[in-house]
Amino acid sequence: MRVLDIIRFSPQETFLIGYPTGPVQAGSWELRCNGELVATLDVTGEAELEAGRRGKLAPPRAVVCRGPVDKSRFDFTRDEVTLERVA
Predict the structure, then answer these.
(1) pTM of the entire structure?
(2) Which residues contact residue 65 at a Cβ distance below 8 angstroms, ignoring those fewer than 6 apart?
(3) pLDDT at position 21, please?
(4) CA dihedral in degrees (46, 40, 15, 9; nearest 10)?
(5) Residues lower than pLDDT 70 in the chain
(6) What's the pLDDT score for residue 66?
(7) Which of 11, 14, 29, 80 is most exposed, with minimal Cβ within 10 Å?
C-alpha cells in the first residue's frame, strides 16, 4: 500500500492513510521509505472513514497501528512511502 499521510490519532494509535489493495489484516507490517525498512508496525485493523459528499473518487482508507510513527522522517511529495505485509 502506498502511504499518503500519517496521522497520530492518540499516543497509542496512529493512522496510515492510503489505498490498500484488498482487506487489511492485523499483524506485523513493514513501513518502508524508498524501499528501505523504516519500522515494523503492529497493525490492528482498519478505521472507518466517512466519504466526502462531493467527488466521485473512492476515499482513502486508514490502517490503524499501535504506537507512534515519526511523520517528520518522510517527504510525501518526494519519497515513496509504502506499507507491506510481513510474510
Answers:
(1) 0.86
(2) 13, 14, 16, 29, 41, 42, 43, 44
(3) 86
(4) 120
(5) 51-56
(6) 95
(7) 11
- DSSP track, the chain: -BEEEEEE-SSSEEEEEE--SSPPPSEEEEEEETTEEEEEEEEEEEE--PPPSS-SSPPPEEEEEES---GGG--TTTS-EEEEE--
pLDDT at 79: 96
Label the pairing between strands 27-33 and 13-18. unpaired
Which amino acid, one-letter code, is at 14? T
Residues 39, 66: Cα–Cα separation, whole Å:
12
Neighbours of 65 (CB within 10 A): 25
